[in-house]
Amino acid sequence: MRLFFVKDFLDLVFPRNCLLCGRSLYDHENNLCTICKGTLPITSYHLRPIDNDLCDKVKGLSTVGMVMAYLKFTKGGNSQKLLHQLKYRNKPQLAKELGSMYGKILSDTGFDKSWDMIVPVPLHPLKQSRRGYNQSEQFGLGLSQSLSVKLENALIRGKFTETQTQKSRLQRMDNMDEVFQISPYASISDKSILLVDDVMTTGATLCACANVLLANGAKNVDLVTIAAGG
């Protein structure tokens, strides 16, 4: 009885609301209400992982295999609102839940035995210190739970890069030159790797990371992001 009282008190002082619509969450809901989960712009990239427009984006930049994204990115849409929560509202648990949800879809589609490890795109240590977490790593942890595949921080970011927003595809690749390195503690030789990030626009960052992994002995690299768009 006392536990219920404490819970009711905490819900009153620290209300749990859906991060998209603001409705009060039920006990079985975490960051998003069931209604908002049902309206997420989930893609079908997992049904055509080697023949889709995301694959076209990375052609000529890297020899990756499958390319997938959980959500379709649209400006002002729910996917952008979720990414804003991750980057600016201190919601690491949201990224983890999104990873878990997409991981279940991938597992149900037959990808549960596809990878030896999950590797997140790293943030620069200064940026991660400011934010408090790496949203790509949290997304990867959610995937890790659903797919039963270990997550390893096999990459490190050694250079602070300027914003990519206004850069072209080739300019973004130039901006990524020599940014990423293999962690001295990583063991990626002959491993099938799922490389994960929060969003894909041109694919330059993901391809730069994939190229480092492949150059250091990875067997193959596939890409997954929370969202992707034009």
UniProtKB/TrEMBL annotation:
- Check the record and name the InterPro entries matching this protein: ComF/GntX_DNA_util-trans, DZR_2, PRTase-like, PRTase_dom
Locate the coiled-coil region(s) and give their ranges.
Answer: none
Residue span, Phosphoribosyltransferase domain? 90-228
Which domain of life, per UniProt? Bacteria
Q: Where is the Double zinc ribbon domain?
A: 9-43
Give the Pfam families listed for this entry: DZR_2, Pribosyltran
For this chain, the family text in UniProt reads:
Belongs to the ComF/GntX family.
Name this protein carries in UniProt = ComF family protein
**What organism is the protein native to?**
Algoriphagus aquimarinus
Specify the taxonomic lineage: Bacteria, Pseudomonadati, Bacteroidota, Cytophagia, Cytophagales
